[in-house]
Structures are given as C-alpha cells and as structure tokens.
Write a structure and sequence with these properties.
The complex is a heterodimer of chains A (314) and B (558). Chain A is mainly alpha-helical and 314 residues long. Helices cover 76% and strands 0% of the residues of chain A. Chain A is globular, with a radius of gyration of 24 Å. Chain B is of the alpha+beta class and 558 residues long. The chains are: A mainly alpha (314), B alpha+beta (558).
C-alpha cells in the first residue's frame, strides 16, 4: 500500500509542475496592465514605470516565472498588486470560506445523490426512477448562477427568510447564524454534483444488481439487506471517484456562485483578481485551486483500494 | 436656478432637490413571515442590528484600505477616504443644487504669497485631534506629505504614493513655519493648488508609529474625519462609528455606525437591498430600477463631474481631423433616445461639463440632435451614406465610470451610420484601454484606431479640461491621447494655471470649454448621474453634484 501511495504522490509532482507553468503563462496572455488598477488613471508614465519596477514586472517573463516558482516553493506567493497584502494570507482567509461551503455542498450532494441514486437504481423504469432521473438531469443542466438568483428571489427577496449575500457581519455569530448565510449558496452549489452522483449511482446500482453474483447471492439465501451491502461495496469506488472530482469542481468552479452570493471565498477572490488583473493573486489562487484538485484526486486514488483492492495493481 | 436631473420624466427640470421618493414601500405580508419562520425554523431568525446603522453595498470587490490615501477609485475616497480622513481643504457637499466648491478643512485658511506665487501658506485648524487622541499639527502635515513624496522617509508608502503623488504634480516642497502653519512650494505659479491639496488626506503619525508599519496601521487606523474605523476585515466588511469628538459640530454624524460591504455583482446588490440586508446600494443596474421603484426604494441621483465621450485622434489619417466631420458626428447622436435606453440614467452631454456648470461658458456651436444639419456638414466634406468613411473606435465592455459601454456604443454606431460613418469597434478590457490611453494614439497598441472611449473624471479644471488637449502633455508626459495641438488652447491653459484672480481664472476656464465645444474636439455623449438605490428608512441624504458625498446628515429611521 505504501508503495502505491508513494507512486501516486510521485505522479502528482509533474502534474503540479505543469499546472504551475500553465497558470503562470496563461495570465500573462491576457491584455491590459495590472498597474492600471493600482494607480489613478491619470498617473504619469514615470510613476507607472517606477511602480512596475517595484513589482518586478519589467523583467523577462522566464525570469519572472523562476523567481515566482522559487518563492512559491518556499511558501511566498508574493503580494497582491491591488491590496498589497500577502497572497498567501488572502488565499488562506478565502479558502476557509470556500472549504466550508464546498463541504456543506458535498454533504448535501452526497446525501441527496446517494439516496436518489440508490432509489432509482433499485427501481429502474418505475415512476420513482423517472422522477429521480428528472431531478438529476435538472441538477446537471440548470446553470447554477441562474439557480442561485432564483433561490435569492424566492427565499431572500420574496420570503425574506435567508440572507441574499455575504457571510454575515457579526464576528461573534453562532453556528446557526453562520449556517443561515451558507444555505442558499450551498444548495446552489450542490445541485450539479447531486445530479451527477444520482446518475452515476443509479447506473452503478442497476449494473451491479444485474450481475451474476447478485443472482448467486440471492440463490444462496442472503437477505436483501445483506445484498445491499454488497451492492454498496461494488458501487463505492466509482461513486467515490465521482464525488472526489466534484469536490474539486466545487472548490474551483464556484466563481459564479460565490460572485452571485458575494461569498468571500476563493471563487470571489479569483473573480476580483481577474477583474483587477491582479497577477500575483490570480496566479496564486489558480495554483492553490489546481493543487487542491490534484490533492483531491490523490486522496481518491488512495481511498479507492480500500474498497477495491484490485485497483492497487493498476 | 440650478438644473437637476429628473428621473421620472427623463427631462431636465429645475429642482430644489433632485432626490425623489418614487413609490411606496411594499410591505411584506406578515403571513409570509410567519409561514417561512415556521417552515425554516431557527436558522431563519434575523440577527439584530444596532440602531442608526447604515449598511452600504459597494461596487468594489474589496474594502477600500483605511490607510489614508485609499484605493478603489472614487468610491474608495467617497466611503473611506473622506469619511475617516480629511484633507487641508474639504469639498462642500452640503447641497444638491449647486456645483461643489472647496471649503476650509484641516486648514482654516490659505493664501498665496503675493510676491512669490510659488509659495502658499496654510494656517492649520486649532484643536483638532486624530481618532487616536494625538494632536493634528504642522508636523502631521509634513509627515503626510512625506508619506507620498519622500522615498527616503520611514513612513513612505508605495501604495499611498501611487494614489496621491500624481494628484500634486506641481508641489515641490513643504515646510513647517510654526506648529500650526505650513508653507507649500510649487515648481511654478499654480493657481489650481487648492484643488490638488483637497486630494491629500491626513493619517495619524502617532498611530503609524504605534503600529510600526502601514500594514499594521490598517488594524488601528486613525484620521480626523467624522467617522472612525472600529472594524476592518479585508474583502468582507468595515464598520465605521461616529466620531463624537469631530471638530465641526455641524458635521458630527447622525448615524451610530456605517457598515461597508463589498458586493461587486450588481444583481447581488439589488437582492441584498430588497431582502433588507443592506440599506443602500451603489450603482443599481438600469434594468432593476423599475422594480426597485415599484418595491418602494428611492433611486437617488444627481449630475456630477463626469463625461462619457469619444476622445478623437488628431493624427494624420484620422477622419476626425476634419472639423466638419467632428461636428456632424456630434449632431448625429440621438442622446435622448440613448437616455431612454439607459432607463433615464444619463444626462445628454453638450460639452465636457454639463450646461449647469460654471465652466460651461457660452459656446457658439450647440451640441444636439440634428441629422439634416449633420448630413449637410458631411456633404461638404464629400461624405454621405452612399459614400461612407470607416472609422475604428476603441471601446471597453465595462469599467469604472464607463456606464453601459457596449449598449451605448452600438447606439452610436447606428446613429453614425446614418450620416455615412461606418464604425468598427476594437473592444478591449478596461485596463487595456486605460494602458493605451496613457500611451497615446501614436502607440502601436492603438492598432489603427481613431478614437478611444474613456469616461473622464472632471473634479477640477486640470482633470476636466486641461490635461486632454495641452499640446505639452502628449505621452509619455501626460494624457493628451489624441495629440491635439492648438496655440490658443495652450495659452488658455497657461492662463488658468497662473491666474490667481478667480474671476479672471473662471473666464479663462469658460473660454477653454468654449474652445472644446466650438471645435467639437470630442464626441460629447453623456454625463452619468451616479444612481444609487436606498431604502425608505434612510433619511437626510443630500446627493451632492460630486463623486464624493457627505454621509454625516444621513440617519436611519427604525
């Protein structure tokens, strides 16, 4: 097992390195000058040049990349051009918000997806299956920023029941008060992965139930509860992989949802970094999110053999 | 009588007060509250807010830095720069009816030396203390000028310097005469110094020393303004509280607290207002105005120093070098139609400043909508719809002060096609547009374009009029993007700068503005009216004709 984990870890290194090259060079391709945001529009060229030199933006791109990589490896992501704060502290403040939202959304997606998927898988072709499938397709198809706006209109504007945006202004708020702010963005975020998990689990359960060993188990006289245990065990590795990937998407793909809800997480941070052309912040946030994605895949890779030892041999 | 902007009729009207209540507040039915409370239980309970708390949703994605010379553009100065901090000279923002003027701030008086007009004496206001209790005096003024001008000073701050240094380009020196007097020296006689000085706000030297750095200062900021910072959480919120010890008893805030929240997404701001999470939103989107009005919110707006033009290239090969074409284009734009398109949220431009401005003067050419006159001018230039010319225009999809650039530019494109000008757009990111604007029309990044569409801030004569057409301010020295050259304009600019008699100076400013209009130097399109939507609970707000606003008379009716 240790060898397997090490091998997976080593595989992650070149991926991470490639990610660093891509996220460094991609942001350089966009037009515009990051300093335009920092400086007043009527700042003189002299001031622009001086500030450019201070941020090292006057040096060749390759040099900038290696300086950046060297700093990143030692935990120094540089300073945000727009705010002057260390990028790492900006990201670490935001990542807590995004993680808590992603966690709650994953939990919702998992509970809903597993329940509906199992239900549909056991009742293929029935009205229950059709309703569950319709829900899954809606979850996958409805753009989540639109869903977010609709939820806000219903629950915040019409019913005045839940906050429309933000994470609250009371630093001493209890967990219930904090949860109020999380419900709408979490439900919005959960819709798509819930749909995907439902569809995956439905297919897996139906496929497993149709396999010979289930017939054999039934013939052997096992109860349905015992058979259910086998179905779960056979479906789990794939379901886990789906959820792991979705968790990564929830972290990285929440730009629109966090923007709609002004949720102060990495998505909103990324959005404002894009709008202000804040290159160090943009590079740092993309890198951290990409590494999070790599890490989630790694964790799934490590967990999967626990359910299915055959995977270790791959 | 001053002219305000009437939202509902969409017409200019003489108004004593331009803020209007548009309709009644739609009270949410108690039954709905009951139903949702039952259904959603404890999680749905509302948090209590302190009395007299105004919660504002900003368009910025981050809280403006509470360091003094703050960031986030005009919005940053509006809500942080001039609430917590102050300059030696303040703006009089107390009226909605007249253009804003300069008034004594932390300096009680100032004068230029009659024998050497490069020297200005500022008498400082007695008895003012910073929020940390330390006294405001000449040492504090020198400290603050050093923080943005003197790179060797320990308190020199790159960020504040970036924001402030360019605001005082002619200030070359500053010395303490005595504890309450400061002398400011300029490179040449500059009658516009008071406008420049109004930009530079004062942070507490003692608070900076106690903090040890500007980053640490942000945790315990101190200015002299009517509000003080009691909580600052980057990217989340700032809570400002009333400064009971403020030096001007007339401007001690009515509010207990002012909460600033960054909500960059326009629809999120609208939802936050409608759900009662905030009481005030900046820049509601045009398509939400009607529903906000219907729900009982006030849309408050007023004309302010802003212009949305096409800045023409006067380089060889640009069709805009022909005055007839420039005038024809100015006559071809249906600005009233455009206003309807924007839900009434603009003032048709007739020059660089609105006709209500003291600076407007009496130009001979009237900018308006007259397609026949435009066609006649084009015919003189040998151009018609059948024999059109093509122009390339740099525009941006969004940006600060850009209003709704795509919509407006497409409207212009349609109007200009009518008189034989086919427009091709070169759409660029806002920052890319600014970079090119700074680099000038000769820069390769202009890519053959013959105009750029940057909205202009016009707080003072220099930013409003002088910098765009001064032939000595072409790139890289300044922002005369189009390389316009005119001995007459340059002479007027010199006169404005060196004339200390304000009456004669005003005449020169008016003449310069007349020069703009009579030569149709820009395509004058619109002035923004800076809409904001506020809850009916918000009382006492007077929308000044300015980028900045006074929040001290505002209160919340519980």
């Amino acid at each position: 097992m240790l060898g397997y984990i090490l091998k997976r870890l080593l595989h992650a290194v070149p991926v991470a390195l490639a990610v660093s090259v891509i996220c460094f060079s991609l942001v350089q391709l966009a037009p515009g000058d990051p300093l335009a945001v920092v400086l007043p529009a009527d700042a003189s060229q002299e001031t622009v040049d001086a500030v450019k030199a201070q941020y090292g933006l006057d040096r060749p791109l390759v040099v900038q990349y290696f300086i950046w990589l060297g700093n990143v490896v030692t935990g120094d992501f540089g300073k945000s051009i727009a705010t002057g704060r260390p990028v790492l502290s900006e990201i670490s403040n935001a990542i807590g918000y995004s993680l808590s939202l992603a966690f709650l959304a994953s939990l919702m997606a998992l509970i809903v997806g597993l329940s509906l998927g199992m239900l549909a898988g056991y009742t293929i072709g029935s009205p229950v299956d059709k309703v569950a499938s319709a829900f899954a397709i809606s979850g996958v198809s409805i753009p989540h920023y639109w869903l977010g706006i609709v939820l806000v209109v219903i629950f915040s504007v019409q019913l005045n029941a839940l906050p429309a945006m933000g994470a609250g202004t009371n630093p001493d708020a209890g967990i219930l008060e904090r949860l109020r702010f999380m419900i709408l963005p979490a439900v919005t975020l959960a819709a798509m992965p819930a749909g995907i998990v439902t569809r995956s689990v439905r297919a897996l359960v139906a496929e497993t139930l149709a396999r010979d060993f289930v017939t054999a188990l039934r013939a052997k006289g096992l109860t349905e509860v015992q058979i259910f245990g086998h179905v779960v065990k056979n479906s789990a590795p794939t379901a886990l992989a789906v959820i792991g990937v979705q968790m990564g998407y929830l972290m990285a793909g929440s730009i629109l949802v966090e923007t709609v809800f002004s949720w102060p997480g990495t998505g909103l941070l990324l959005n404002s970094a894009i709008l202000t052309r804040d290159i160090p912040l943009l590079q740092g946030t993309i890198l951290v999110l990409a590494l999070f994605f790599v890490a989630m895949n790694l964790i799934v890779d490590i967990l999967q053999p626990l359910f299915d030892p055959r995977i270790k041999r791959i | 009588m001053p002219i305000g902007y009437d939202l509902k009729s969409g017409a200019l009207a003489a108004l004593g007060h331009t803020a209007r209540k548009l309709s009644s507040w739609q009270v949410l039915r108690p039954a709905k509250h009951l139903a949702c409370a039952t259904a959603l239980g404890l999680l749905m309970a509302h948090g209590a807010m302190a009395e007299g708390t105004l919660r504002v949703a900003l368009t910025a994605s981050d809280i403006p830095l509470p360091n003094g010379q703050t960031d986030q553009g005009a919005e940053g100065m509006r809500f942080m720069g001039y609430t917590v901090f102050e300059a030696l000279i303040n703006y009089d923002l107390s009226s909605a009816d007249k253009p804003v003027t300069l008034v004594p701030g932390l300096a009680s008086e100032w004068s230029v030396n009659p024998d050497d007009k490069t020297k200005w004496t500022f008498k400082l206001r007695e008895g003012v203390t910073f929020h940390d209790g330390s006294p405001f005096n000449a040492d504090a003024v020198i400290f603050n000028f050093d923080k943005i001008k003197d790179e060797s000073a320990p308190q020199y701050d790159e960020k504040q310097s970036g924001q402030g240094r360019g605001r005082i380009p002619t200030v070359t020196g500053y010395t303490k005469i005595d504890d309450m007097t400061v002398e400011i020296t300029t490179s040449a006689p500059d009658a516009l110094i008071p406008y420049q000085i109004a930009w530079i706000v004062m942070s507490s030297p003692a608070a900076w020393e106690a903090a040890g750095s500007w980053d640490a200062f942000l945790n315990a900021p101190a200015g002299t303004g009517p509000f003080k910072v009691s909580e600052y959480v980057p990217r989340e919120r700032a809570v400002l509280t009333r400064n009971d010890a403020y030096w001007d008893p007339e401007r001690v805030p009515e509010l207990d607290e002012l909460v600033l929240l960054p909500v960059p997404d326009a629809s999120a701001r609208v939802a936050a207002l409608r759900s009662g999470q905030v009481d005030w939103i900046e820049a509601p989107p045009a398509d939400a105005m009607a529903s906000l009005e219907a729900a009982g919110f006030e849309i408050v707006s007023n004309v302010y120093p802003h212009v949305w033009p096409w800045h023409f290239s006067m380089l060889e090969g640009s069709p805009w070098t022909d005055e007839r074409v420039r005038k024809a284009a100015n006559l071809a734009i249906d600005r009233e139609g455009m206003k309807s398109l924007l839900g009434g949220m603009m003032l048709p431009a007739q020059g660089m400043v609105p006709p209500t401005s003291d600076w407007f003067g009496e130009p001979e050419f009237t900018v308006g909508y007259d397609v026949e006159a435009a066609k006649a001018l084009m015919a003189e230039a040998g151009i018609s719809k059948e024999n059109p010319i093509s122009v390339k225009a740099i525009i941006s999809p969004s940006g600060g002060g850009q209003m709704q650039p795509i919509l407006m530019n497409e409207y212009i494109q349609q109007n200009l096609a009518e008189i034989g000008i086919n427009v091709e757009f070169d759409v660029r990111d806002w920052n890319a547009l600014i970079s090119n604007w700074r680099a000038g029309a000769k820069d390769p990044t202009t890519n053959g374009a013959m105009s750029t569409n940057s909205s202009y801030f016009s707080q003072d004569p220099f930013t409003s009029l002088m910098r765009h057409i001064d032939s000595r301010l072409v790139a890289p020295k300044g922002t005369n993007w189009g390389y316009y050259e005119s001995a007459e304009a340059d002479a007027l600019i010199d006169q404005i700068r060196s004339e200390f008699d304000t009456t004669i100076q005003l005449e020169a400013i008016q003449s310069l503005h007349e020069h703009y209009v009579d030569n149709a130097l820009f395509l004058f399109v619109a002035h923004d009216v800076q809409p904001r939507a506020i809850s009916a609970k918000v009382k006492g707000f007077i929308p000044a004709q300015n980028w900045f606003q006074d929040l001290t008379p505002v209160s919340i009716e519980e």
